[in-house]
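Support reply, case 0932

Customer input (verbatim):
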Amino acid sequence: MTSDLLHYEDFPEGLVIPLGSHHLSKDEVIAFAKEWDPQPFHLDEAEAERSVLGGLAASGWQTSAILIKLSVEGYANRSAAMASNSMEEGRWLKPVYAGETLTGRATVLSRRVSSKRPEMGILKMKFELFNAEGELKAELTGVQFMKVRHP
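Our regenerated output:
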């Protein structure tokens, strides 16, 4: 039932949403790289050791995909999310290595109701991905459209 879902009103500015964790295996890194980013430092441990990354590391695109998956599982599938029209900024700050456990967090940066579509709230969100030591590995900033409960 849609009334049980989180709506725009449930996302105040400054809200921090824990997104859960994902353990990234060596096999996942290599499988993703074979399909989407077949560079040697994503495919081969020896090549990765000799690279600037210093070890088998996930593609930045895979890191972003993990962060989005955590967001969907962490709140979006329990919400009246309508869509998104952009990721305004994405930054891969440090390599994400095979074997790391990653934890996500989302923060509502700003919010407003659409002037053209009052049934739609517009949330600007920052999504962050950390390793077990608390190092920030990646961040995405983008827009989430969320249904307004009582337009």
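We compared this against your earlier run and they match. Two observations from our side: Residues 8-147 form a domain with the Thiol Ester Dehydrase; Chain A fold (CATH 3.10.129.10). The mean pLDDT is 96. Please reopen the case if you see a mismatch on your end.
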